[in-house]
């Protein structure tokens, strides 16, 4: 799948837990729900999946449960760490993935030339597609537009960026200068419409865990440049986009999934379940979304 073109709605999947262990039954059900709703690709083992709390055995368990449920959908797995060795180890562990999502190294606060060399080195060790993931609010380091563009132009298997910087000017700069075949995906649900109006190819979404059908229709309308429909759907989803980040992701999202009966409201420390206030806000938003 080296020629994959990433576009549309991808879902950054939660990892369900039950009695402290990965809940494979709930994971399979949620993955199948995504497939039935028509999402374009699945992204387990990212930030939303609480991956830093998972053992290697659990990462494999999650990957195979999702892969077996995905039918023909591409499965992009999060493999990034804050070292080359750690990332390569995750890539070897999850070698059967269709593509790798690699976050800018966190905590180290590397300069731009370090970010470039890190991604170049990672890419040399695989022929599979790599999606660069820029989320400075989590990592402490921003991959600047020129660094992303240098990687897009100079490293053939870096094929896309998930941009969650929240800096719309930075993302638009990339959009206006990217090479042909390089996908730009929103990493923030609330930025999706604005970025797709500027030419972005889709989103890696948290909200699509909760409402995959609505998110898929929203993104499809934007891809088809049906802006009236996209704006209407985006307006309906805007409260959910906001509420899923009242507390750090995935705390509100797991509360929403539990309210829908799709998984237990369990997280692993240092994350904790949502407050009563967040639970109430989520309940009201879900009721309004489907009224």
Main pleated-sheet profile: 8 strands, parallel
Q: What count of domains describes the coordinates?
A: 1
C-alpha end-to-end distance: 40 Å
CATH class: Alpha Beta
Class computed from helices, strands and strand pairing: alpha/beta
The average pLDDT value, as a whole number, equals 96
Q: What overall form do the CA principal axes indicate?
A: globular
- What portion of residues is helical? 40-55%
- Name of the CATH homologous superfamily: Aldolase class I
How many DSSP E strands? 10
Could you state the order of secondary-structure elements as H and E? Answer: EEEHEHEHEHEHHEHEHEHHHHH
The assigned CATH architecture is Alpha-Beta Barrel
List descriptors.
alpha/beta; TIM Barrel; globular
Furnish the topology, listing elements before pairings.
Elements: E1 8-12, E2 17-18, E3 21-22, H1 24-37, E4 41-43, H2 56-69, E5 76-78, H3 84-93, E6 99-103, H4 112-124, E7 130-134, H5 136-139, H6 145-154, E8 158-163, H7 168-177, E9 183-186, H8 192-197, E10 202-205, H9 207-210, H10 212-223, H11 227-243, H12 251-259, H13 276-289
Parallel strand pairs: 1-4, 1-10, 5-6, 6-7, 7-8, 8-9, 9-10
Antiparallel strand pairs: 2-3
Helix pairs in contact: 1-2, 4-6, 6-7, 10-11, 11-13, 12-13
Question: What can you tell me about this protein's structure?
Answer:
With 291 residues, the protein is α/β, with parallel strands linked by helices. It has a single domain, classed as Aldolase class I (TIM Barrel, Alpha-Beta Barrel). It contains 13 helices and 10 strands. The strands form 2 sheets. It has an 8-stranded parallel sheet. Strand 8, helix 7 (168-177) and strand 9 (183-186) form a beta-alpha-beta unit. Helix 1 (24-37) packs parallel to helix 2 (56-69), helix 4 packs parallel to helix 6 and helix 12 (251-259) crosses helix 13 (276-289). It is globular, with a radius of gyration of 18 Å.
């Amino acid at each position: 799948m080296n020629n994959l073109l990433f576009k549309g709605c991808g879902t950054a999947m939660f990892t369900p837990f039950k009695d402290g262990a990965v809940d494979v039954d709930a994971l399979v059900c949620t993955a199948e729900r995504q497939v039935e709703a028509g999402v374009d690709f699945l992204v387990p083992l990212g930030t939303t999946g609480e991956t830093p709390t998972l053992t290697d055995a659990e990462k494999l368990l999650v990957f195979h449960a999702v892969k077996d449920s995905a039918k023909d959908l591409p499965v992009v797995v999060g493999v990034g760490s804050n070292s080359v060795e750690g990332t390569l180890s995750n890539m070897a562990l999850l070698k059967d993935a269709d593509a790798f999502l690699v976050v800018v190294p966190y905590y180290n606060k590397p300069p731009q030339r370090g970010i470039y060399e890190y991604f170049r080195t990672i890419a040399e060790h695989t022929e599979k597609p790599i999606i660069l993931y820029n989320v400075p609010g989590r990592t402490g380091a921003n991959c600047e537009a020129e660094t992303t563009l240098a990687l897009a132009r100079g490293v053939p298997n870096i094929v896309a960026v998930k941009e969650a910087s929240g800096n719309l000017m930075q993302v638009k700069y990339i959009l206006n200068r990217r090479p042909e075949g390089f996908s730009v995906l929103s990493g923030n649900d609330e930025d999706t419409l604005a970025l797709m109006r500027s030419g972005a190819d889709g989103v890696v979404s948290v909200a699509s865990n909760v409402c995959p059908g609505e998110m898929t229709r929203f993104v499809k309308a934007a891809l088809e440049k049906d802006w009236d429909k996209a704006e209407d759907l985006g307006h309906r989803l805007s409260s959910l986009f906001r509420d899923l980040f009242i507390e750090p992701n995935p705390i509100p999202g797991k509360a929403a999934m539990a309210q829908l009966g799709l998984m237990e409201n369990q997280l692993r420390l240092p994350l904790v379940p949502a407050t009563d206030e967040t639970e109430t806000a989520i309940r009201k938003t879900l009721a309004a979304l489907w009224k």
